[in-house]
């Protein structure tokens, strides 16, 4: 399957408002691409335009040399001729058909002979581990099993691209975990190109090979998940990706308090003139205890310790600012106790919100 290329894509529903604005995006062959962002950011609209369910207002969509949409040239290929499979948020299974018959449905519409239809349906059901339930009806299955059947129905038609529109949002936490692992396994086994829409950053980070973060119809960053986490392109990505979110400290013209402390550290450790508008620190990059040499540190007052089994969240007050520390080792502290808080990882952002590239020669800068 060649790359999917979106060039200058825009989508407006009238009134001058754009759901997607001037989007350039390439989905590599065999990738597990996640479109990530808050509600209303344009990710589902983008997926539907790739599927052919929506037509762009401007721009073009191509698969290799084959143009599927081109506003300028007046070209449009309907959904059924794109060779793509779409799994919706609701599973859309026929209640009066058995699991096997549901999976065979698309093949029946394509007039595939019955023996081949049955073999492909059973193979797809084995791939998603629901072959033992192929003679049951959807009402007799759990939510996770129904989701797997919907996937099997798409896999049976051998789509060149599998499009998933928040398919895990209706599942409980345990089933979501299982299905994340299943989707990753299916992608590795089948090699099918997958484009996945979600607002859940955990799904994006754990499954995707590439993540495209969107906001207000615009692409904010495209990168492998851990690269995006370590080097967010701007403040929106930095605050959206990560839980708890990155703490952002605004740096004014004459910073005081925590902002002043951070700024003095940046100035003393920068090999060049760096004037950030904000400094960001992830909660897991903050540590309590004796700091090593050449890191930022300040005294902090403990306000609350929140144990969560495998991790501890500590709310601190450092000078004039409240921050959260995320620790994966037990925190023996009580409210009111004064500890030293330190970090060796900071993110600097300019006035336009863009992340300032690596600034520290000693390894302190992120």
Automatic annotation (TrEMBL):
<dbReference type="InterPro" id="IPR003593">
    <property type="entry name" value="AAA+_ATPase"/>
</dbReference>
<dbReference type="GO" id="GO:0005524">
    <property type="term" value="F:ATP binding"/>
</dbReference>
<keyword id="KW-0547">Nucleotide-binding</keyword>
<protein>
    <submittedName>
        <fullName>ABC transporter ATP-binding protein</fullName>
    </submittedName>
</protein>
<feature type="domain" description="ABC transporter">
    <location>
        <begin position="4"/>
        <end position="241"/>
    </location>
</feature>
<keyword id="KW-0067">ATP-binding</keyword>
<dbReference type="InterPro" id="IPR047641">
    <property type="entry name" value="ABC_transpr_MalK/UgpC-like"/>
</dbReference>
<dbReference type="InterPro" id="IPR008995">
    <property type="entry name" value="Mo/tungstate-bd_C_term_dom"/>
</dbReference>
<dbReference type="Pfam" id="PF00005">
    <property type="entry name" value="ABC_tran"/>
</dbReference>
<keyword id="KW-0813">Transport</keyword>
<dbReference type="InterPro" id="IPR003439">
    <property type="entry name" value="ABC_transporter-like_ATP-bd"/>
</dbReference>
<dbReference type="InterPro" id="IPR027417">
    <property type="entry name" value="P-loop_NTPase"/>
</dbReference>
<dbReference type="InterPro" id="IPR017871">
    <property type="entry name" value="ABC_transporter-like_CS"/>
</dbReference>
């Amino acid at each position: 399957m060649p790359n999917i290329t979106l060039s200058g894509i825009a989508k407006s529903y009238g009134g001058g408002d754009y759901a997607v604005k001037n989007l350039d995006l390439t989905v590599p062959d065999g990738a597990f691409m996640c479109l990530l962002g808050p509600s209303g950011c344009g990710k589902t609209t983008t997926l539907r335009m790739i599927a052919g369910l929506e037509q762009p207002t401007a721009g073009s969509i191509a698969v290799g040399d084959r143009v599927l949409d081109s506003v300028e040239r007046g070209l449009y290929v309907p959904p059924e001729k794109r060779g793509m499979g779409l799994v919706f948020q609701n599973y859309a299974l026929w209640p009066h058909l058995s699991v096997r018959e549901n999976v065979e449905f698309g093949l029946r519409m394509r007039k595939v002979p019955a023996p081949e239809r049955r073999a492909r349906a059973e193979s797809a059901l084995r791939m998603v581990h629901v072959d033992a339930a192929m003679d049951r009806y959807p009402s007799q299955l759990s939510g996770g099993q129904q989701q797997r059947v919907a996937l099997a129905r798409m896999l049976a038609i051998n789509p060149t691209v599998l499009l998933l529109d928040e398919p895990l949002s209706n599942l409980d936490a345990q089933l979501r975990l299982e299905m994340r692992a299943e989707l990753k396994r299916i992608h590795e086994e089948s090699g099918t190109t997958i484009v996945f829409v979600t607002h859940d950053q955990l799904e994006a980070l754990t499954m995707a090979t590439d993540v495209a973060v969107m906001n207000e119809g615009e692409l904010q960053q495209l990168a492998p998940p851990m690269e995006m986490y370590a080097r967010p392109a701007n403040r929106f990505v930095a605050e959206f990706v990560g839980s708890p979110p990155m703490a952002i400290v605004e740096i004014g013209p004459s910073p005081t308090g925590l902002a002043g402390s951070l700024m003095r550290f940046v100035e003393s450790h920068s090999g060049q003139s760096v004037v950030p508008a904000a400094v960001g620190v992830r909660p897991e990059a903050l540590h309590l205890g004796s700091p090593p040499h050449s890191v930022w540190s300040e005294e902090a007052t403990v306000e609350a310790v929140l144990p969560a089994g495998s991790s501890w969240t500590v709310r601190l007050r450092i000078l004039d600012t409240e921050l959260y520390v995320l620790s994966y080792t037990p925190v023996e502290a009580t409210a009111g106790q004064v500890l030293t808080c330190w970090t060796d990882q900071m993110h600097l952002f300019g006035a336009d919100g863009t992340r300032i590239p690596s600034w520290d020669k000693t390894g302190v800068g992120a």
